[in-house]
Design a protein that fits this description.
The chain is mostly helical. It has helices at about 15, 35-55, 60-65, 70, 75-80, 85-100, 105-135, 145-150, 155-160, 170-185, 190-210, 215-220, 225-240, 245-265, 280-300, 310-340, 345-380, and strands at about 1-5, 25-30.
Length: about 375
């Protein structure tokens, strides 16, 4: 939107003489300041997930350490186990950001923005992890060439192909969210009323899908993840108007249903075969803190957290998230078993290594190819 400042019209033609009328002067609207605190929250969520993958679970990472993380981190592993909830916090942030970025955009612009944001680093990460796992010195098995190629489409999960990146299941959830939001909000045009109806309709439909136990409805509506996306959308409406009772209602319902699904999925009775280190109260607390943190950004409470390096941190979050798990196994094995570095040093060193790799991906892949892909997809034919 632009503001128009018009010059006063002359009283008469004679008074005006032969001078042409002064055209209206267009005053461009100032861009909203970047919410750098949200970039910081992204990085915190990514580091939570990394802590879980490196020290909060068993599985392949135990081969990297040479023993279970419970042995490597006798006390901290119980805290690291909560790191998986960083994914739910990511989904809340995603709901906020997608509603913000989709507001006032055409469908083509929205698609170009999302595709150019996701794909360059994702393609590079798939190629990189496949190549590293194919090296003879790496003990982890690479996926088949056919499955690796399917992974480039982001459709490997519904097609039943092996995943190159362990975290890509969250991208499949994100893609389905983008599709729902694009069709229901961006295509007809984002308005407050339309966004509220979308959130209410999706919430109700997801609950019905849960009760119906119909696989197709579950696939499309994602009952277990929908409350987090919807809660994030509600928080963006709060950001636009903190007195919006409907927005707060959307946030509240999203939190209430979201914590239910988080507890149902991530809590189970103590079992020596699993990491049974999460309590239901702890899960609820982490989910609540995630909502509160994004709410603090929405309400402007963190506006003072405006350090420029947070923008860089936000830019590194996505490539870091893509490569940290599988390549982290390789780094942990090399540092801990290969060089004999203690586990409490190996973990931060591995995180630092993955951040450096993320910076390289950001600099040489995203900075070069994201604008080109966005431009190519934005052109009308």
């Amino acid at each position: 939107m632009s503001f128009v400042e018009s010059a006063p019209a002359p009283a008469s033609t004679a008074e005006a003489g032969t001078l042409p009328p002064v055209p209206p002067r267009i005053l461009p609207q100032k861009r909203a300041p970047r919410l750098r605190a949200l970039d910081g929250l992204r990085l915190i969520a990514a580091l939570m997930v990394a802590a879980y993958h490196y020290g909060g679970r068993d599985g392949e990472v135990s081969r990297a350490w040479g023993s279970s993380p419970q042995i490597q981190f006798p006390t901290l592993h119980t805290w690291f186990a909560y790191g998986c909830l960083g994914v739910q916090i990511f989904f809340v942030i995603s709901g906020f950001v997608i509603c913000m970025s989709g507001w006032g955009r055409s469908l083509r612009s929205f698609f170009a923005s999302r595709a150019s944001r996701l794909l360059p680093s994702y393609w590079a990460a798939v190629v990189l992890v496949t190549a590293v796992f194919a090296l003879p010195v790496v003990v982890y098995e690479a996926v088949s060439p056919s499955d690796a190629l399917v992974n480039l489409t982001l459709m490997q999960q519904p097609l039943g192909a092996d995943r190159v990146l362990g975290v890509c299941w969250t991208l499949w959830a994100e893609v389905r969210f983008y599709a729902l939001f694009a069709l229901c909000v961006v295509l007809p045009g984002a308005t407050r009323q339309r966004v509220i109806l979308f959130c209410a309709g999706w919430t109700l439909a997801a609950v019905i899908a849960q009760e119906a136990r119909e696989p197709l409805l579950d696939l499309v509506l994602m009952p277990e993840y929908a409350p987090f996306f919807i809660g994030g959308i509600g928080l963006y409406l709060v950001h636009r108007d903190r007195r919006d009772a409907y927005a707060w209602g959307i946030v509240g319902v999203g939190w209430l249903i979201g914590q239910h699904y988080a507890v149902a999925q991530l809590w189970h009775p103590p079992d020596p075969q699993f990491f049974s280190n999460r309590s239901s109260a702890g899960i609820i607390l982490v989910v609540t803190l995630g909502f509160v943190a994004v709410a603090a950004v929405a309400l402007g409470w963190l506006n003072r957290v405006n350090w420029r390096w947070l923008t860089v941190a936000g830019a590194l979050t996505y490539p870091f998230y893509l490569v940290h798990e599988h390549l982290g196994w390789v780094a942990i094995r090399a540092y801990h078993q290969g060089l004999g570095i203690p586990s409490y040093v190996t973990m931060p060193l591995t995180v630092l290594t993955m951040l450096v790799l993320a910076r390289l991906l950001n600099r040489y892949v995203e900075d070069r190819f994201t604008p080109r892909l966005r431009s190519a997809l934005s052109k009308s034919r």
